[in-house]
Amino acid sequence: MTWNERVSSFLGLHVDQSADNYRITISARHKIDELFKKVNEGHEHNLQWHPLKAPYSSDFQNAKDYPNTPLSIRQAVLRDKFRFITGVLIYLSITVRADIVTLLGRCCQGTADPTRLHVVWLEKLLCYLHGHRDVGLVFDARTNRIATDVIEPLVLKYPELRDLSKSPYVCFSDANFADVNDPKLRSTTGFIIYVWNSPIIWQSKRQPITAKYF
């Protein structure tokens, strides 16, 4: 294969190249379409998906307060197909969908025996994916959205970061401390690394231990 040859798919992912080869977009639209097709089988009129703007919702905190609330028809279907759905989403999260990693990790904690809370998280995640099927990785040699949308505002606020714009390697990391959704109050740490303005690796992981004050 040469640089001038066109690639339309790779490992089930859709690849779109610009005519001048300066821009490559990789997405999983086809896999997401197939996922919803299999989830909806036999329930086309009962499963209504309302797209969400973000994979998180303000009612997440309230979901755990009603563990005995009966599941809706859609939630019951998701519970029956829980392992299949999370298996597909795991592949998406490690290939092109960094935006679902954190919430998917929470869903997967209930893989063996999903509770209502795990089902609600998965339901919200699928509602988000339903309206954002084409989101993926973009590799563009001409534009630098990371620099204009992220790094430049940071430099304006924190002058000590002015050399960051000169580096081809940029890493962002964060953590939520003492996660209230975890019974042991463990924190979740996440990071994403960019090389020449393109994401190459990311992770979101629940920390195994919790520090305590005495």
Instruction: Give the overall average pLDDT.
Output: 85
Order of helices and strands: EEEHHHHHHEHEEE
Helical fraction equals 25-40%
Helical run tally: 7
What characteristic shape results from the CA principal axes?
flat
> Strand fraction band?
15-25%
CA-CA gap between termini? 62 Å
What is the total tally of β strands?
7
- Briefly note the structural class of the backbone: alpha+beta
Provide an overview of this structure.
This protein is α+β, with helices and mostly antiparallel strands and 214 residues long. The chain contains 7 helices and 7 strands. The strands form 2 sheets. A 4-stranded antiparallel sheet has the order 1-2-3-4, covered by helices on one side. The chain has a 3-stranded antiparallel sheet with strand order 5-6-7. Strand 6 (188-195) and strand 7 (198-206) form a beta hairpin. The longest helix has 16 residues, at 116-131. It starts with 8 loop residues before the first strand and ends in an 8-residue tail after the last strand. The mean pLDDT is 85.
In short:
The protein has 214 residues and is of the alpha+beta class. It is built from 7 helices and 7 strands; from the N terminus they run βββααααααβαβββ. The strands form 2 sheets. A 4-stranded antiparallel beta sheet has the order 1-2-3-4, covered by helices on one side. Strands 5-6-7 form a 3-stranded antiparallel beta sheet.
